[in-house]
Amino acid sequence: MNTFEEIWAVVREIPPGKVATYGQIARLTGRPRGARLVGYAMAACPENKDVPCHRVVDRFGGTKQAFDTYMPDGQRFLLEAEGVTFRPDGTVDMDRCQWRPE
């Protein structure tokens, strides 16, 4: 399995209504300083891979404009549809919504 496939496999484990950070995914794949690599993997993910890339946010709970290509606030829209809550500043409420794998 290549590096991106390993990252995508972990992202597939994030349940609906939860999010993980780029750094968190990096640590879970054994790359504690690989948050940027996770970002590259999310950007390179083909649509046919069924990877919920929208569930990956930055360390502050911020969404990325890359999702806005097809619709404004696309990532936020997808997350809210799954029950993810946002704070007044527009970031994900990480205390309530961050995925904590067993």
- Per CATH, the superfamily is Winged helix-like DNA-binding domain superfamily/Winged helix DNA-binding domain
Q: What fraction strand? A: under 5%
**Over the alpha carbons, how many angstroms does the gyration radius reach?**
13 Å
Number of strand elements: 2
Shape: globular
The largest sheet has its strands arranged as: 1-2
- CATH C-level class is Mainly Alpha
Number of domains: 1
Order of helices and strands: HEHHEHH
Supply the CATH architecture. Answer: Orthogonal Bundle
Contiguous runs where pLDDT drops below 50 for at least 5 residues: none
List keywords for this structure.
single chain; 102 residues; mainly alpha; Arc Repressor Mutant, subunit A; two-stranded parallel ribbon; 5 helices; 2 strands; globular
Structural account:
The chain is mainly α and 102 residues long. The protein has one domain (3-97): Winged helix-like DNA-binding domain superfamily/Winged helix DNA-binding domain (Arc Repressor Mutant, subunit A), CATH 1.10.10. Helices cover 38% and strands 4% of the residues. The protein is built from five helices and two strands. It has helices at 3-12, 22-28, 35-44, 74-81, 94-97, and strands spanning 20-21, 56-57. Strands 1-2 form a two-stranded parallel ribbon. Helix 1 (3-12) packs across helix 3 (35-44) and helix 2 crosses helix 3. The longest helix is centred in the N-terminal third of the chain and has 10 residues, at 3-12. It is globular. The mean pLDDT is 93.
